[in-house]
Amino acid sequence: MNLVEQINRLLGTHSQELISAGQVVKAMILNGNSTERVAALAMVMGLYLLVYSLGQRALRQALQRAKKTIDNQLGKPTSTPTLRWVFQCFMSIHLVMIAQIKQIANLTHERQWILQFFGAPCRKYYLLS
To answer: Which residues contact 9 (CB under 8 A, 6 or more apart)?
Structure first.
């Protein structure tokens, strides 16, 4: 059984089901993938978690320094939002070009409020600086 079949067997047919990183590594080992490949995957996953943690920490520190909050999923103010929630807030923002003019669609006041707690490169990405 190859890696894809292993993962599909573990996942089932519902896309809502989750698979753990341990199950992926176990499937890779059972499939006969080299230990170098498993180590490389572990390195990439570790790097991802490091970048995610640093981003979330920077956001929370910026909120704490400013003594401000943003709304969480329930609409309640929080100074410790998850970066996942913030990313979900920005999913519906799109770059639109009309007559060679760049515009950002769905950039609400709430999203602009959140962007002030990120660095200048992030605000520049959304054409705010």
So the answer is: 1
Does residue 63 carry a pLDDT above 90? yes
105 and 111 in contact (C-beta within 8 Å)? Answer: no
Long-range contacts of 43-49 (CB under 8 A, 24+ apart): 45/21
> In degrees to the nearest 10, what's the CA dihedral of 77, 104, 121, 123?
-40
* Residue 99 backbone class (left: φ over 0; alpha: ψ -120 to 50; beta: rest): left
pTM above 0.90, yes or no: no
For residues 45 and 14, the answer to whether their CB atoms sit within 8 Å is no
Q: Which two three-digit tokens encode residue 4?
A: 């894809």
DSSP-derived secondary structure letter, 91: T
Q: In the chain, helix, strand, coil percent, each to 5?
A: 55, 10, 35
Q: Which residue has the higher pLDDT, 25 or 122?
A: 122
